[in-house]
Design goal:
Length: about 70
């Protein structure tokens, strides 16, 4: 498995754990519809939340939030 893939999976696991500790129920991980993928679908207080996780070890290529559109 490629190193970047392993890093991404680790970041998603950390994010899911964080959300669970905040009281969210994780409904799905890596949910797919046609060509789209959502890293985490979570639910809390009647709110469905779609989470995209960007894991970086540094900002050489830019900040993670700059890669979400």
């Amino acid at each position: 498995m490629a190193t970047h893939y392993e890093l991404g999976k680790k970041g998603e696991a950390i994010a899911a754990d964080f959300l669970q500790k905040k009281g969210y129920r994780i409904l799905e991980r890596n949910w797919r519809f046609q060509k789209a993928e959502v890293d985490i679908l979570a639910f809390k207080n009647g709110l469905l939340v779609a989470v995209e996780v960007k894991t970086r070890t540094d900002t050489y290529f830019g900040n993670p939030q700059d890669f979400i559109n």
